[in-house]
Amino acid sequence: MTPFKQYSHFVITLCVLLICSAVFGQTAPRGRQIFGTVLDASPNLSQECFDRLAASESEEAAMQILKEIMGRRPASNVVVIARCPGTKQEVISDGEGKFKFSDLPQGVYEVSAETHADPSGKGVGRRLSTKKPVRLVENNGIVTLHLYKELIAVKGRITDVQGRSVAGACVTGTPVPVREVGLIEKVVTVSGADGSYTLYGFAPMDVYRLAGYLNGGNLSAPGSLYACVEVCVVADGFIQNKSNVPNVPLVSDELLDAARRFGKSLPNSNGLKSKDGWREKDSVFLPVTDGNTILNVDVVLNLAPGTNGVIPTIDK
């Protein structure tokens, strides 16, 4: 065999080996990942913190106390759960609050975190996060979970214009303003036979923003993410007018009390002293609350066009 033929034979053999290696050496594509961080967002609402804020002499000292009040500390040893139809995985957050799910099939996941109360009573009580939707298609998912001592519930009743209960209506609560990217967080339920509904699982507004709102601030301003909840209803034979979509601040009794104490401490702080001071405005809208539950968020539905005045089957 001539040197040229030997070289050609070598090249052909090498190409075949490379092709076989590429074809038979392939492994099945790995699944997707969801990773992120768990933060304890339960604020420190103690009067001792507010008193130290009032006594702060500099902006730097005041801001440090504000960080302590607002929380956002990494939460370790927290159970993080990722759910998707047919799939459920659990992991534990590490010392920095970080977690990771690996080899997940594609789909839309609901990711949440929770910790239970220390039976000895020496540790923190139970903490819960809201449920964050994450879509896994081509890319991995990144999510930050915030733990709260309590989540907010919203209760109300769905009726028609004649005051009759609308049963089986789909009721959706959406925290607003929403982020411009990512999936929108929602809580969905169905009204009962008497038209009543309960939506549970909303993050409370932070105490700093609520204090500003009580002082006349705007909850629709940039940065005011998830300060309120909008309640939208879909029911056969009915429509909900846009003017009749409740938009309710996400507050609780404890949070309102803390925001008022927090606001009153601000004028005394040299670090955060404002020109006009802090004063709760009489015109501020606040919902009826009982603990962490917002009450009487009722929705009245109109008959849909084409019903010819015939009321759909509803519970009386």
Report on this model:
- With 316 residues, the protein is of the alpha+beta class.
- The chain is flat, with a radius of gyration of 27 Å.
- It has 2 domains: 119 residues, Sandwich (Immunoglobulin-like); 166 residues, Immunoglobulin-like, CATH 2.60.40.10.
- The strands form 3 sheets. Strands 1, 2, 3, 4, 5, 6, 7, 8 and 9 form a 9-stranded mixed β-sheet that branches.
- Helix 2 packs antiparallel against helix 3 and helix 4 crosses helix 5.
- The protein starts with a helix and ends in a 13-residue tail after the last strand.
- Helices cover 20% and strands 33% of the residues.
Topology:
Layout lengths: L2 H22 L7 E9 L6 H8 L4 H12 L2 E2 L4 E6 L2 E6 L5 E7 L2 E9 L11 E3 L2 E5 L4 E8 L3 E9 L9 E7 L10 E4 L5 E7 L4 H8 L13 E7 L3 E2 L7 E3 L3 H13 L22 E3 L2 E3 L3 E5 L13
Helix pairs in contact: 2-3, 4-5
